[in-house]
Every structure is written in C-alpha cells, then in structure tokens.
C-alpha cells in the first residue's frame, strides 16, 4: 500500500502548460474525480498512456480549465505505482486550485523528490539514475546535460555493477576454500583471485579518475578572483556575469565580504568568488574579508589572478601572485587594457604560463579568457558522457570500495587465511552497493532526495 501523493510538476510561474502529477494507490481515482473527459468515459476507465481531453474541476466542483489527462497503471509508470497527470494551462492559480481538488480526494502534497524516490524504491531506477534526474534538471551546460542523460540511461550504474560482479566472483572462489578456514589459500586459487582483484582495482581507479572532470561538468568549477585592492576584480565579476553584481569604486578595499555568482565561460560553469583584495590592513572588517579571501583561494580549483596592467606592479601584487600560485590552476589576467600598458607581459607569461590581457571596462579579451578556461577544463564532448563520477557521495563510495580491494590484495599477498580476505571483499561490495543504491541506509536515501524539486 502506498499513500497517494500529488504535486504541481511544472515551475511555479505563469507558462503555456502546467502539469499536476499524482502517484500511489489512489492516484487514478483522485484524478478521475477531478477531471471530466469530454467523451463521457471516466478517466479511470481509459487506456494507459493516452491523452484524454476534458475539463478540470476546482474544489467546489466548477470547471476551472480545459485540460488533457493521462493515467499509467502500476507497474508500467515512472514511479512503478499507479500514476495520473493533468496537463492544464500554466496558470499558477488554476494549478493550485486543481491541486486543492486532488487533496480533497485524499491525495497529500508530495515531498521534494518523492516521485523519483518511489521510482527508486520500486526498482525503476538505481541511485545513480535517480541522482542523474536531479542533475539533469539543474544542468547549465550542454556537457552537463549529456553527462546527466547518459547517467540516467544507466551507464554509470552498469560500470559499477561490472566491478560488483567481478568481486562476487572473488567471493565464489573464496567460498570454495572457506570450508577449511585455517588453511592458506592454495597458489592456484590465489592467482585467480589475485587477477580478479587486480581488475577490480583497475576499474575503480579508472572510475575515480573521472571524478575531476565529472565534478566540474556537473557542479561547476570553484574559481576565485584574486588580486590586490583596486586591480579590478569586482569589475571583472560584473563583466563576466553580465550585470552589476558587486560594488565597484576607485577606493581600494571596496569589497569586504566574498561575493559568489555563477557564470558560464568556455562551456563550463564557473562558481566565481569575488574577494576582498589581499593585503595587510588595520581595518577589522577588511581584515576578516581578507581572511575569507584566503579560505576561498584555498578551496578554489582555478584562480583568476587580476593585475592592474596600467600601473607598475607593487609589493601587494607580488603577495597576491604568490598566494594565487598555490591554486591548482592559475590564469593571470592583466586588466585595464583600455589604458596604456605598464607591466612586463613577457615576464608574467613566463611565470604563470597562462596570461590574458583584458579590460573589464570594455569587455576586451574576455573571449580569449573563455578559450583558456575551455582548454583548462575540457568537457571531452560525448566521450565518457554518463559514466563519470559527479558528486562527493559517489566518489567517497568508490574510494571506500578501492581501499577494500587494496586491503584484500595486501592480505592475499601476505598469505593470511581466506576469511580475512573475504571480509575486505565484502566491504568492497557493500561500498559499491551504496553507490548504486542496492544496499543503502534509509537516512542516506532521504538526504539524497531532499535536494530534488517538489513534483520531481
Ligand atoms: N508528462 C511527463 N513528462 C515526463 C515525465 C512524466 O512523468 N510525465 N517524466 C518523469 O518524470 C520523464 C520521462 N520519464 C518517464 C519514464 C518512464 C515512464 C513510463 O511510464 N514508463 C513505463 C511505460 C513505458 C512504455 O510505454 O514503454 C514503463 O517503463 O513501464 C514515463 C516517463 C520526463 N517527462
Ligand atoms: N579603465 C579601467 N578601469 C577599470 C577597469 N576595471 C576596473 N577599473 C576601475 O578600477 C577601480 C577598482 O575596480 P574594482 O573592480 O572595484 O577593483 P577590486 O579589485 O574589486 O578592488 P577591491 O574590492 O578594493 O579589492 C574602479 O575605479 C574601476 O572602475 C578597466 O578594465 N579599465
Ligand atoms: Mg572589489
């Protein structure tokens, strides 16, 4: 028995079409009670997955819209339960009255992600596919869409299950010797098992190597604008996001707190963080801001080091350069190219490798910056789309699986008894089971679906 959930599945704003969605044992009856087909044949008696034209009724029984409705009987539906949908005009008021009608028929408001959670619980999707649904909804670049769509079709899950099956084979070999737990594993078995563990390790290392790319394709690249006060960091942030997000003045020390904004550049999403110019200061507020800048820089995958190209470099520039150089990747931006140049570009180029002459004021050079970002974070086209690890949960589970396999390999090499190695292999299996959701605790599942939209 599952209770009946209902939600508005479309965005909460006026639009062309809006969708009400239901799932659960009472879904078809509830939809049938609030939707009157023009043909006279009740919705509950219609065929699956047909669109039926008719009238949507409000809580008081009056007609509130002309609509299309459809039903899917369990288990042939998205959730695996009885489901129903009403497609009406995309009016927030019509949708909320329609939802109210459904509540009167015994449905309750769906929680965020609850439809997809039910699909997962009924085995319609594994956990990587369910996560892909949320990633697809949030995708901001074509590469992010390709990755999420591939993962939704099950590519990552299959790759993980292949490793899982390999480890199950190892278990099978062990069970053959487990009847004699105190015996050492004979050399023949040890070789077969060793080979299978090698393959599992290779596959897991390969999977973990995808995480860097998967993470920035799916979640964006943490990117810090660093540089001395007045270099033009906030002006560049504004130029990149396309509106006056941060305050800009000619007073050094204008930006106090870190300012975060997302922007698309070179086919990647940058999670841009504008910072307080790095410098020694007596001002308490600014000092705290500089401290935040340092933290942001420490977590950044890309530092955009902003220099004022119209003035000779200062001691503060030198300090900023040293700090930025600690980031995994640095692009040196020589800003204010609309003014006469006062710095040695060749020297900077030698020092940072990547250099871009730009003007936040005119926008000059930002296209070249986009090109450099694209080079640093290649999305790889279709190659591997869908089989990348994209979030910390997946990566942590894969890492735990790899560690278990490595422990098993060490134990095997040391010639310990079979049941000791077996424990390691079982832990590896359990980590992989968490990754696909085959074995996962309810509280972990709950956390994953909380980040979904209502109605998804
Ligand atoms: N209107 C609408 N659009 C939508 C969805 C939806 O639920 N409603 N989806 C969901 O969020 C996504 C599509 N995903 C879906 C996946 C499976 C089934 C489904 O009914 N599967 C059945 C029947 C398949 C068939 O006809 O062959 C099955 O697998 O048994 C429906 C939607 C995106 N677009
Ligand atoms: N001519 C010219 N002026 C610029 C350019 N970019 C920034 N400026 C000016 O430089 C001054 C400082 O700019 P901001 O963007 O506030 O500099 P900041 O690095 O954020 O400074 P703090 O927040 O103090 O660390 C302002 O007067 C800007 O108008 C540019 O490309 N050309
Ligand atoms: Mg600033």
UniProtKB/TrEMBL annotation:
The protein's name: tRNA modification GTPase MnmE
Binding site for K(+): 230, 249, 251, 254
Limits of the TrmE-type G domain: 220-378
Species: Lawsonibacter hominis
Origin organism lineage: Bacteria, Bacillati, Bacillota, Clostridia, Eubacteriales
Role played: Exhibits a very high intrinsic GTPase hydrolysis rate. Involved in the addition of a carboxymethylaminomethyl (cmnm) group at the wobble position (U34) of certain tRNAs, forming tRNA-cmnm(5)s(2)U34.
Compartments, as annotated in UniProt: Cytoplasm
Necessary cofactors: K(+)
EC class (word): hydrolase
Domain of life the protein comes from: Bacteria
Primary localisation category: cytoplasm
Residues involved in (6S)-5-formyl-5,6,7,8-tetrahydrofolate binding: 21, 85, 124, 456
